Structures are given as structure tokens and as C-alpha cells.
Amino acid sequence: MKKDYLPPLIILLIFEAIAVTLWLTKGNLFYLFNFSYIGLSIALGLFLYSKKIKYARRIVQFLVGCYMLVYLGIISNENMQIEGFWYYLFTGVFEAATIHYAIAKIFGPLLFGRGWCGYACWTAMILDLLPYKTPAEPRKKFGFIRYIMFVVSFVFVASLFILRAGNMEKIMFWSFLIGNIVYYAVGVILAYVLKDNRAFCKYICPITVFLKPMSYYSAMRITCDKANCVSCGKCKKVCPMDVDMTDNSRSRVNGTECILCMECVEVCPKKALKL
Questions:
Q1: What element of type H or E holds 274?
Q2: Which long-range contacts (CB under 8 A, 24 or more apart) does 29-38 make?
Q3: What pLDDT sits at residue 67?
Q4: With a threshold of 0.85, does the pTM exceed it?
Q5: 104: which DSSP letter?
Q6: C-alpha span between 267 and 263 (Å, rounded)
Q7: What local confidence, expressed as pLDDT, does residue 126 receive?
Q8: Given a cut of 80, is residue 4 above it in pLDDT?
Q9: What single DSSP character describes residue 140?
Q10: How confident is residue 149, by pLDDT bands cut at 50, 70 and 90?
Q11: Residue 138: what pLDDT?
């Protein structure tokens, strides 16, 4: 079997294992379809990437992102934002958003790091279409805002339970719609103001509070072959997340923010970078 086929096959098998396990343990056929679809989408993207298809990652973004935003969020009325995670956590139900967060954003990053941000996030799939693919200026010191947003989301849902609010499902649905509108608006404004498509991801997104610590130990990492590296700096210039890919240590600059977009791998003139 060709080496190019191994990554998509491995990803597909992992997601199929998750799909079958949840289907059998939860007794719900939906999980078989859900994780099989996501696994197939990501595997397809990796396969297209191996064939040098230019927009392979973007294809995956829209296949997974639109599915989660439109089908799960809007049609099925599931709040897949962080508020939905808190909601199901408080109700003690291991369903929907809690399963999604456990796999994609809490334990999953131990395997694939911030791959969610690069291949599945429905907010980033729109922001990546904006013109500022690489940061025009040095990173700002606004990262603390993500922690404020994290706490605010928790307090919002906790308050609903403390106050015994009625129509909780409806509130969660509308908070999902309004939250996404606000996220898109803030994301687009920040991108144009800071000349950086991923400014929202760096400074505002509360989900990164889960992603960052686990990504530190990620099994899937882009590493640099020091023997081939000529220190041209091209990888640093194209990285949307300001990661120093020439440093192989886990404590490298912004190392927990690599979204595995492979832009650095593509631009390296000596092919010194690899996943």
C-alpha cells in the first residue's frame, strides 16, 4: 500500500472505531452515521492533499463545518457551541455536545492536536476565506480574552440552572444561533482590523482553553529536519498561527496553536518539514 494512503486510512479507522463503539454502547444509529461521515470527510481531505489538490483542507472544512452548523445545529436543534457542552454536562447526559467535545476538543487533541481548528471548525471555514491568510503584524497580547469568554459561557449556562429557567432547549437553540452570528461578526471585524484571518482563534475563541493544554502532548506534530533546514524563515511567514516550526520542542513558540494546515510544509524549499 502506498505511504500516501496510510494517513487517511488511519483516520478513517479511528473514526469508524468511535462510530461503532458509540452506536453499540448508546444504541443509537445516529452515532454510526455521524462519526462515519466525519471520518470519511477528513480521510477524503487527506487523500486529496496527498494528490496535491489545492483546496483539499477547505473541502474538509466545508464538509464537516456545514454539517455541524446546518444539520446538527440548525436542523437538529443541537447547540454544538461551548454553551451546549455546559448544558449537557449539567444535565448529566453524555450526548451531543458532550460527546463532540470529549472527542474533538478535550481528548482528541492528544492524538491530532488542533486539527479541529484547521479542518472542521465552522467559524474558521468562513474566516479562512478572508484575504489575510498570514498575520500582517506581530501577535497582540489579547489572549486573556479567551479565558473571559470561557468563564462567561459557563456562568451563562450555570445561571439558567440556578434560576430554573423554563424552555431550556429553546434557550440553547437561540443561544447557538445568536452566538454564531456574534462569532462571525467579531471574527470578520478582527480579521480586517488586525489584518489576520485567525485573530478570532488567537484572542477570542473560548474553546481553545480546552484545546491548548491537550495539544501540547499531541501525537501528530509537524517536525523539522534540522539537517535539511536552511533557516530561510518561509515557514514562519506563512503560518497563520505564528508557530515556530523550526523548533521541535513541545514548548516552541505558540506550539499548542498549530492547526495542521500544512502551509509551512508546502512552502519549505528543502522539504525539511513533515507531519
A1: strand 273-274
A2: 31/99, 35/103, 37/67, 38/64, 38/67, 38/120
A3: 95
A4: yes
A5: I
A6: 6
A7: 95
A8: no
A9: P
A10: very high
A11: 85
What is the b/e burial string over 218-235, where b = at least 16 CB atoms within 10 angstroms of the residue's CB? bebbbebeeeebeeeebb
Domain ranges, ordered by start, for the chain: 1-53, 68-215, 221-275
What pLDDT, on a 0 to 100 scale, did the predictor assign at position 71?
94
DSSP string, 212-259: HHHHTT-SS--EE-TTT-----HHHHH-TT---TT--STTSTTGGG--
Q: Is 256 exposed, middle or buried (0-12, 13-18, 19+ CB in 10 A)?
A: buried
Q: What values do phi and psi take at 274, rounded to 5?
A: -155, 160
Name the DSSP class of 5: G
Query: Under a CB-based contact definition with an 8 Å cutoff, are residues 242 and 139 in contact?
Result: yes
Whether the Cβ atoms of residue 126 and residue 109 lie closer than 8 Å to each other? no
Contact 217, 259 (CB under 8 A): no
Grid coordinates given for 143: 489572549
Q: Which residues are bridge partners to 224 per DSSP?
A: 273
Distance of alpha carbon 175 from alpha carbon 169, whole angstroms: 10
Taking residue 124's Cβ as centre, other Cβ atoms within 10 Å add up to 24
The hierarchical CATH code for the domain 221-275 is 3.30.70.20
* Integer CA distances (angstroms), 27 to 14, 20, 72, 78, 103, in order: 19, 10, 19, 19, 18
